[in-house]
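Researcher: Next entry in the queue.
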Amino acid sequence: MKRKIVSSLLLILIATTTVSATLSNQDTIASNILEKAVSFSDRTIQYRPTLLEWGVDQQQTENCGHGIILTPPWTFAQSFTPAQEKLTAVRLRIFKSGAPPAVVHITVSIRDNLTGSDLTTKTIDTSVVRIPKDNWILFDFPDIVLTPGETYFILCSGDGGNDTNAWCWFYDNEDVYLNGEAWVKPDDYSTWSNFTHGGFNPDDFCFKTYFRKPLGGSIPINVEYGGNLWVMFLLERFPSEFLRVYYGMRY
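Model: Structure for this entry, 251 residues:
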């Protein structure tokens, strides 16, 4: 444990020194940062300011260990009720079953009516966007304005694969999200309907909606910044905001 603490303090020292060398008239501030980090290393390393994270509005993160297969001609949807006026992106929890084709296009769109037009949409190419076997996948589309309290729908579909080799959307078979529900459309000639409740049929898909991007733009996808790696990322990306927000210092 002592060796780990020493290594952490060395990382802070390196990051702080680098910043102080690039900012004019900041030597005193850099010294104060180092002193504060050494005195309260556990607390300051673990703390993450709210403005530096994605702003979550609605979410459903529970699953029953099953997912719905995203293959044509099927389309699936999850309704939600926003509390915020802005929608900037969504994340869906997607996993791989078997060996899907190398190139699959997964499309996510937002509607205020299941049979209406898309308000915004985003398609990812699985040969370009790396998707681990199981992960929360970001669909960052053009921002739209929503009416809080009204019902909206996240539609999702894939254009490749089969029943045993496909990308799948996690769901829960319990009604855990009270502000929406799962929907299905088998093909272009069918109408939208709810799943039959019971067994392993979906009640709610796994999703997160965002009303705000992190300060300074998107933090790299699928990269977890912990400990001093988080500190160094903040110092490098936006040093002045880091000094003010992260440490609460005035200068």
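Model: Residues 55-212 form a domain with the Jelly Rolls fold (CATH 2.60.120).
Researcher: Noted, moving on.
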